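pinging the channel bc i need a second pair of eyes. not urgent but kinda urgent?? the chain im working w is below, pasted from the shared doc
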Amino acid sequence: MPRVALLSNPRSTGNRSILPRVRSFCARHKDIFHYEVEHVSQIGAAMRTIARVQPKVLIINGGDGTVQAALTEMFNGGHFGDTPPPVAVLPNGKTNLIAYDLGAGGDPIAALERVLELARSDLDPHIVRRELISLSDGTPTGKKVIGMFLGGAGLADTMLFCRHNIYPLGLPNGFAHFLTFFAALLAIVIGITAKFLPPRPSPVSVLLPKQSFRGRFAVLMVTTLDRMLLNDRFSPSHGSNGALSMVLVEQRRGSVLRVILAAVRGRLGRLTDPGVHIQRSEEIHIEGEESNVILDGELFQTRRGRPIVLKSTAPMPFLRLAA
């Protein structure tokens, strides 16, 4: 019986170059069950098949959007009952935030070898349980989409600017992200709008159970991840308890610069600034007139009278690859 199930999305950006190596690796290791999907709509069928295999570990080989779709199907589909296998994520795609948080950096084949090594031994010391973000329109019948990182307001606009204006240039991912960051910072510092810069964020309201904020925000970030790209351990020290960690930065030049400096120094969770709001919560409502929100690569928009509602889920098991 296969110890490991591997779900691959060949259309993921990273898989265009590494998938032949992944297929070759799986062909040499019979305890890996490899299932490929051509579209996220096929992930439901993939999960039903993988559940019959009963793997010790489920590996997702794709970008953050593929991971989000797989987690959503696991959460809503109930294919594994009350005992889903721990999830491991190969470093792939353009951002790899989820893989990075779980300690899977560098070469995807090396990460795959590490997962297989752990699956042949006692997994318990390497399993971590994480709450996830459940996104819905707040109605009882609304579909719940599951993810781990959400960007909204100016951050979402900047991510879309990168997706539509910078990625098509064919630049290396690291340089594309740097160029996007520089353009966004330039727009805030100079205070101008232009076609070659991200747009000025629209007004948005962010409501927590005991607090609310309204205005134009350069950054709206909600996550259940522990590790971020600039801040190795992201742990807000302000606000009430809750699995959702939120960073809200007003469209102020000084506040944005201080957030960047604090993030580089690894002190974002302890920053005190009137234009920066760092909170923990179990529920967050985002309201606005067609304000963009991106959850692990998938775009959503608020509508008048239809806020986006974020809640934390019950913990799910994940496999941490770092020693």
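so The chain has two domains: 4-131, 149-295. and The first helix runs from residue 15 to 28. — does that match what u expected or am i reading it wrong
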